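User: Could you write out the 3D structure of this protein bound to zinc ion? I've included everything you need below.
Assistant: Certainly. Input first, then the structure.
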Amino acid sequence: MKRSHFILIALVVIAGAIYAQRGPLLERIITRQIDKTLQRVDNSLMTDGKLHVILCGTAAALPDPDRAGPCTAIIAGDQFWLVDVGPSSWRNVDQLNLPISKLSGVLITHFHSDHINDLGEAITQSWIAGRSKPLDVYGPQGISDVVGGFQKAFSHDKQYRVDHHGADYMPPSGAEAVAHALPTPKGIEAEPVLEPNGLKISVFRVDHAPIDIAFGYRFEYRGRSVVISGDTKKTESVIHNAKDADLLIHEALASHMTKRATARAKELGITRIAKLADDVRNYHATPVEAAEVAEAAHAKKLVLTHIFPPLANGVARHLFLQGTSDAYKGPIILGADGTRIDIDTQGANP
Ligand SMILES: [Zn+2]
Ligand SMILES: [Zn+2]
């Protein structure tokens, strides 16, 4: 028998065997997939002793096909915090297999829509996943308006789920969120506000004028530190509070890339767009300014987030980062949804 005939017969036999077994085989494949889905949550993030930072959303206010709105997860020990919950960011929190039923709380930097839009999802989905205590939501003065509004908007949803599944499975307390207005620090000094199980959280003011109040947050855990700038232009308070930080996560808007579109909009008489674009440029930092902040603070690593404009390809990404490595000598990461940084706490000086 020719070799090709032999291979053909072997293939027919294998195909026949698979066909005969298709029921059990399909069953096994589907069961494996179900098991994977049911057991996908990565609980090791809360037990390995490291300080984890996961970017769940890295866009700015305008929709970006590749990025959800601003959201950063901080996980350390048994603590799991989200800083801001921008549009579609909850989808990432879920898809990144984060331990959502154990969400400790949400910290809001300020009340621009791109930072609060998914708060309803954060409350509802972590409740569905098993959180039974009210969710603590912290932010500047005014946070109770935001939280109260979401609670009202989701009150029908809450009732549906409790009635449908029963209070034993969907305890009504899990659908609740409690607003905590943080004190507004005087000057640029950060103010420690929380210290749950060894994770120290401090808040500081940033410069997002005319938006007032806007916060940045500093996290310290077992001698390591992470600073999140929130929305701000280049400001001394971030430099001061990111001093020697292991990681600085800074917002960045590449005005050298948006200027041209603004000028063209003016030429075309689309003055509204030109005016809005000009205004927006004034209260954000450029990538080079973010790099200068990291350099001045001696931060050990810089991650850029709140990226604008959308970066469709490598050329755009290159343009975005232009000049940053001259301004900052440390490593720079252009943040993307799903970027994860694990900071080892071994050998740190607590
Ligand atoms: Zn923003
Ligand atoms: Zn903003």
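The CA atoms of residues 148 and 299 lie 37 Å apart.
User: Perfect, thank you.
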